[in-house]
């Protein structure tokens, strides 16, 4: 039998539950993006044990760090402060806008404020041009 949180995720509000779980996640002090990815993967796996949590999920030419039940993809960016990383992230978001689920960009650490502002602008443009009943791409800051 599915736990209440898994039921809510699967049948009611995967975006809201994902935001809630990311908010509840208390990662240890990690040095690399990969360590944060591993920590979040383990937390989600423990929180949603009945759902399939996939690491390194490929969609087209893009790869998301984590996918939950093929409904929510999460891309983690630690210390986003280089234009080249920003451009790569924009490319990933454009690929995932065609994916049937939702796409989360999880910013961790020190993100350049100009890059954050431009990221929000570009994701708003994608969301405006994506048909659907809910926001396609969400940006979450985890301090």
Short overview:
The chain has 143 residues and is α/β, with parallel strands linked by helices. It is built from 5 helices and 5 strands.
Tell me what the structure shows.
This protein has helices at residues 4-11, 14-24, 33-47, 83-96, 113-128; strands spanning 53-59, 62-68, 72-78, 102-108, 137-142. The chain is of the alpha/beta class. It has one domain: 3-Layer(aba) Sandwich (Trna Endonuclease, Chain: A, domain 1), CATH 3.40.1350. The chain has a five-stranded mixed sheet, sandwiched between helices. Helix 1 (4-11) packs across helix 2 (14-24) and helix 4 (83-96) runs parallel beside helix 5 (113-128). The longest helix has 16 residues, at 113-128.
Task: Kindly list the characteristics that best describe this protein.
alpha/beta, single chain, 143 residues, five-stranded mixed β-sheet, Trna Endonuclease, Chain: A, domain 1
Give the strand content: 15-25%
User: Largest sheet, if any?
Assistant: 5 strands, mixed
Q: Assign the CATH class.
A: Alpha Beta
- Rough shape? globular
In which range does the helix fraction lie?
40-55%
Structural class per helix/strand content?
Answer: alpha/beta
Widest sheet: strand order? 1-2-3-4-5
Backbone CA Rg? 14 Å
The low-pLDDT segments are none
What is the CATH T-level topology?
A: Trna Endonuclease, Chain: A, domain 1
Number of strands: 5
Order of helices and strands: HHHEEEHEHE
Instruction: Identify the quaternary structure here.
Output: single chain
Tally of alpha and pi helices: 5
- Provide the CATH architecture: 3-Layer(aba) Sandwich
How many independent structural domains? 1
């Amino acid at each position: 039998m599915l736990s209440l949180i898994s039921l809510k995720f699967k049948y009611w509000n995967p975006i809201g539950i994902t935001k809630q779980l990311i908010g509840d996640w208390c990662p240890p002090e990690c040095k690399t993006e990969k360590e944060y990815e591993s920590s979040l993967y383990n937390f989600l796996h423990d929180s949603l044990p009945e759902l399939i949590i996939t690491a390194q999920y490929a969609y087209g030419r893009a790869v998301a760090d984590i996918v939950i039940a093929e409904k929510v993809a999460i891309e983690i960016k630690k210390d986003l402060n280089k234009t080249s990383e920003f451009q790569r992230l924009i490319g990933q978001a454009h690929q995932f806008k065609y994916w049937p689920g939702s796409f989360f960009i999880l910013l961790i650490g020190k993100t350049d404020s100009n890059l954050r502002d431009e990221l929000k602008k570009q994701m708003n443009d994608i969301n405006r041009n994506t048909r659907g009943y809910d926001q396609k791409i969400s940006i979450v800051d985890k301090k």
